[in-house]
Design a protein that fits this description.
The chain has 347 residues and is of the alpha+beta class. 26% of the residues lie in helices and 28% in strands.
């Protein structure tokens, strides 16, 4: 299945666009509205669940399949305002604090104001503190310093900042001439962008689906319950289109599409995984089959919620997951090709 350079660039552009929209879990209104408008403009009829997931029927008949990606990301929330005007934060999602040290961020107030700041160690200067390299990083030793003229708690409160305000991380999106895409939140905005491109491609090419297909963009995956609700009632199969972590003892890399056989929730459906592997082989895609003991996906949340369906997990290889992540155009393209073949060819 051929995808010309134009469609590859459209896919990268979609990923970059949504990476630049702040959407820590619980603060996804802007990106949800972006998706609703995007799919309406393509000619689809998107819907939104009570919890906020965006659902798009793509068409087709029989054996309903959901392709799910999540649009919520890691982030933080204001836990307390310190007496010196600095911010103590609490995590949204799971990540080590060294992954955010020295990163810039934005604080989003409840009345719509946005302030910039930076995560710093409370003892950051090597010219002053001897334990900079050895200090443990956590929410006691890392804090946010605002780029505002504040020196006490009252100064910060006058800005309208309060406990419970959301904090988004600067994605720092970079796309190289060699095809590497670096950004925070490629988990899972790389695959969300792939599904956006999939819908665009199907509409423009007027392609016939081999079954009924829905897209589902969930908004609480990073805290574990994104896929627990909002699943179309007639669904019999669901594939999480997420990412393939890259690291030691794994065969995935940034240029491959990853097909997950098992993760922390156990094995994925035997037939679904087998068909995905068969298609990848037939198309001669650059693919990996891997096991991820420290990984869980949206479709497992769906199963835990009691849905009776077959399940799978695929996605482009992503290096440094839950940090400053990296993938490649080839892995993104291979993932798109695999999904297209899965919903178009007779199985």
């Amino acid at each position: 299945m051929l995808l010309d350079d134009q469609w590859k660039q459209i896919c990268i552009n979609n990923i970059i666009a949504i990476c630049n929209i702040p959407s820590p879990t619980g603060f996804t209104q802007q990106i949800c509205q972006y998706l609703l408008t995007y799919f309406e403009d393509l000619g689809y009829q998107p819907e939104q669940s009570i919890k906020g997931s965006v659902i798009i029927p793509l068409g087709g008949e029989g054996k309903p399949l959901v392709l799910a990606a999540h649009i919520d990301t890691l982030g933080a929330m204001v836990r307390a305002i310190k007496s010196n005007g600095r911010i103590r934060y609490t995590h949204i999602g799971g990540y080590p604090d060294n992954n955010i040290e020295n990163e810039t961020c934005k604080i989003h107030t409840r009345d719509g104001r946005i302030y910039e700041g930076t995560f710093y160690l409370t003892t950051p200067s090597v010219h002053v503190y001897e334990d900079v390299g050895n200090a443990k990083r956590n929410d006691n030793t890392v804090e946010i310093i605002l780029d505002e003229n504040v020196s006490c708690k009252e100064d910060v409160e006058k800005l309208g900042i309060q406990v419970g305000d959301f904090i988004s991380l600067d994605p720092r999106v970079k796309y190289s001439s060699s095809g590497y895409l670096k950004s925070r939140h490629l988990d899972d905005k790389a695959s969300a962008g792939i599904l956006m491109t999939l819908a665009d491609y199907l509409m423009k090419k007027k392609m016939q689906l081999n079954r009924k297909v829905y897209l589902l963009f969930t908004n609480y995956e990073e805290v574990g319950h994104g896929g627990c609700a909002g699943i179309p009632f007639d669904t019999i199969e669901m594939i999480s289109v997420d990412m393939g972590p890259v690291g030691e003892d794994l065969t995935a890399d940034e240029k491959k599409v990853s097909i997950c056989a098992k993760d922390s929730g156990g094995p994925y459906d035997y037939n679904v995984v087998s068909v995905l592997i068969e298609i990848a082989k037939k198309l001669q895609l650059n693919y990996a089959i891997d096991i991820y003991p420290r990984y869980g996906s949206d479709v497992e949340a769906t199963l835990h919620a009691g849905y009776d369906l077959k399940h799978g997990l695929i996605g482009p290889g992503v290096f440094a997951s839950h940090g400053y992540e990296r993938t490649h155009l080839e892995g993104v393209t291979a993932t798109l090709k695999l999904i297209l073949a899965y919903i178009i060819h007779k199985l």
